[in-house]
């Protein structure tokens, strides 16, 4: 098991970052007047997943981190819904939809496992002057 010293060490954050990279690759050059609002929302929501993981970690408290992981999971659900809208109006094709949808599902599962792990942990957080948490595999 590895020690986690920053949010960048978390596997679920790394996977969320990969989702954002894929999102940018797929949507690059597709911004238009008709569906620009949806494309912008896709970018913002995918970014919210990784940003909430980072923010929760940086707050230094286990309870706050759990809350922010919940926000990330909510954003993952919102993104999955938006992906259907993007598919329906042909902003993305079926192949891209399946790739992004699968990544988002994987992130949601990892967030659930990680939240459950933290809920059952006796670790309170770094702001309580404890040593770095051994977060194990986090899903």
How would you sum up this structure, described in words?
The chain is mainly alpha-helical and 139 residues long. Helices cover 68% and strands 0% of the residues. It is built from four helices and no strands. The protein has helices spanning 11-27, 36-59, 62-88, 94-119. It is elongated and about 50 Å long. The two termini are 12 Å apart.
Along the chain, the helix and strand elements come as HHHH
The dominant shape is: elongated
The averaged pLDDT comes out at 90
How many discrete structural domains? 1
Oligomer: single chain
Which CATH-level-2 architecture? Up-down Bundle
The first-level CATH class name: Mainly Alpha
Structural class: mainly alpha
Poorly predicted segments: none
What is the tally of beta strands?
0
Helix content: 55-70%
Percent of residues in beta strands?
Answer: under 5%
Q: In whole angstroms, how far apart are the ends?
A: 12 Å
Question: How would a textbook summarize the main sheet?
Answer: none
Q: What's the tally of helices?
A: 4
CATH topology: de novo design (two linked rop proteins)
Q: What's the CATH H-level homologous superfamily?
A: 23S rRNA-intervening sequence
Radius of gyration: 16 Å
List keywords for this structure.
mainly alpha; single chain; de novo design (two linked rop proteins); 139 residues
Topology of this protein?
Layout: H1 11-27, H2 36-59, H3 62-88, H4 94-119
Helix pairs in contact: 1-2, 1-4, 2-3, 3-4
Quick description:
It is built from four helices and no strands. It has 139 residues and is an all-alpha fold.
């Amino acid at each position: 098991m590895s020690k986690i010293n920053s949010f960048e060490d978390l596997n679920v954050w790394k996977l969320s970052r990969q989702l954002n990279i894929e999102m940018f690759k797929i949507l690059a050059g597709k911004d238009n007047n008709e569906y620009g609002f949806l494309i912008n929302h896709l970018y913002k929501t995918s970014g919210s997943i990784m940003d909430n993981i980072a923010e929760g970690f940086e707050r230094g408290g286990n309870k706050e981190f759990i809350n922010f992981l919940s926000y990330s999971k909510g954003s993952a659900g919102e993104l999955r819904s938006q992906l259907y809208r993007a598919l329906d109006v042909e902003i993305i094709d079926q192949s891209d939809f399946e790739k992004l949808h699968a990544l988002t599902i994987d992130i949601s599962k990892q967030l659930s496992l990680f939240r459950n792990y933290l809920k059952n942990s006796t670790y309170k957080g770094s702001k309580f002057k404890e040593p770095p948490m051994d977060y194990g595999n986090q899903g």
